[in-house]
Amino acid sequence: LKLFSRGAAVKPLQLSPLATRVMKRAHDSEGGVAVMVPQSRATVLCCLCGVNITPNPTMMCVNCLKGEIDITEGIPKQMSLPWCRTCERYLKPPWTQCEPESRELLGICLKRLKGLQRVKLVDAAFLYTEPHSRRLKVKLTIQKEVTNGAVLQQVLIVEYVVQSSQCDDCKKTYTPHTWVAVVQVRQKVDHKRSFFFLEQKILTHDAHNKVHFITEKSDGLDFHFGHRSHAMSFRDFVNSTLTSRSKYARQLTSHDDHSNVFNYKYTINIELCPICRDDLVFMDRKVAKILGGVPKFMLTVKVGSNISLIDPKTLRGFDVSGIEYWRTQFQTACSRRHLTAFMVLSVELLDIDRDSRTAKHSVVGHRAFQLAEVEIAKMSDLGHNDIRHTVRTHLGMYLKEGDTVLGYDLETLNLPIHEELEDNDLTIVLVKKYYERKSNKRKRRWALRQLAKETEGKVDDEKKAEEFEEFQQDLEENPDLRRGVNLYHLPGADDAPPKPEEKDEELDEDEVPDVLLSELLGGLQIEEDLVEVPSGAHAPVPEDDEEAAEP
Q: Are 193 and 153 in contact (CB under 8 A)?
C-alpha cells in the first residue's frame, strides 16, 4: 500500500497477516496521514435479561438460552443395569462379560439409554463411585441445534443402578435336567492323581467358565454344559492336555414334526491314558519294532499330550504320541504301588557320549539325568542280612551316599512277564529319590484351589485326601510340574525358613524341597466355584503326578 502526504512519497507500509482483517481508513485532516484503525465488533442486548452479547440467531445470552431450552429433555437421569451375580455378566443383550469402567461396559450403558438419537453425543466417560455402592455414573456431553442454526452444548450425568439378577445359563445350573451335553472323563487306574492335575490345568486356563455343574464319581468326573459346542471345546482342551481318546453319542429327547425341530442330549466319553508318571511299561517285540526299535522295558518320566519314556540303563528316550499309543496300547508292568525303599551305599557316575544317540531316541529333559552305577540295599534287609545290589540308573545327579531311593524290585513281584525280565537281565529299576516328611512339623505357605463338585456314589474321602497330599508333594519336588499349576500364597503364612536348631534331628541333611515365594500368586479368595482344598494326611510313600508336555 502506497500512501502520499502533500506530494511527498512515503515508503510502502508492510502489514502482518493479522492486520489484514477488516479495517477502516480514517484520514487525519491536519496531518494528512492515513492511519489503519481496527474495526470494533457490534454488540446487542439480550432480549430477556438485557446483557450485552454478540449477535446470534436467538438474540439471547447463554444463560437465558439454557433456561428457555433444555436439550436433555427426554433423556432419563437414572437407569437400571441388570447384572448376574453368579457369572458377573451384564445384560446387553445378550449377557456379556465386562471389566469395571471398560469400553464394553460404557457401550452397554449408552445402548440402554433412550433419547440419544435426538442429540449429538460429543463425549462420554465414567465418574468415580464406590465399588460397594452398586452405582455407576456416566458423564455425557451432548449437542443439539435449537433455533435458526444455533447449537447448544450441555453436560449430563446419568446414574445407573446395578440390579442383581440371574442369567438364563445360571438359572439352568440350579434346575435339574437342563443340561444339553455332558463330558465324562474316565481313567482305568486305582488313583485320582491325573484328575488332580487336570483340575489345576482347567483352573489355570479358565476352561470351566461354560460348565453348569460338575459331578464327581468313583471312577472319574462328569462336566455338564448347556450347549454342545461348549462340550466339544472342552473335549479338545482335555485332549491337548493329556493323552486321551473320546467317543461321541447322542439321544433324542423330543421333536416337533411340524417345525422339524429335534432336541438331543449329547454325551462325550473321554478315556485318559492308564499309563502314569513313574510307571514301568513293557512293550513286546512287535510294538518295540513299530516305535523304532526301543527297549522292551522303559520308565515313564512325563505324561502329557505325549508320553515320554526313558531307558534307565542307557538314557535312551522316546516320545510316544497319543495316536501311536492308542494304536499299540503297550501295557504297564509296574505302577507306583509296587515301589520299594532302598538305601544308597555308593554312587559312581558314568560318562557317556550323549551326541552319539540319534534324534529318534531323544527325550524331552533327558539332560536332567545322569547315568550312574549305584550300590543299594533294601531298607527291610538292613540289620538282618548283608544283601547288596549294584544297578545302573539315570538318577546319578540326584543321589548320594545315605539317601533313600524308591524303585521296583522285579525279583519279588509276581508279574506275568518273568521270561522277558530274565532275557533283559532286569532285576531292580530305581525311580525317584525319597524325602522323609513329618506331617505335624511341616506347614505349607501355599495352597491350591479346587473346583466345586457334587459327589455322586461312594467316594473314599480319606483316600482322596492322601492322594491329594501326594500330589502336593509332587509339586514341591518337581519344579517342571509347577509350570502348569497356579500356587497361591496363604495370607499370614510364615515365610521365614525354620531355624536349624528347630529342625527335626531325624530328617536328612538335605532340606525337603519347597516352593519359592516368587512362584506363588497372591489374592487367594474362597468363592462359590473355587474352594480351597483341606490338607490331608501325609502318605507313607511320596508319589509324582502326570505332567503336561512342555510347549
A: no
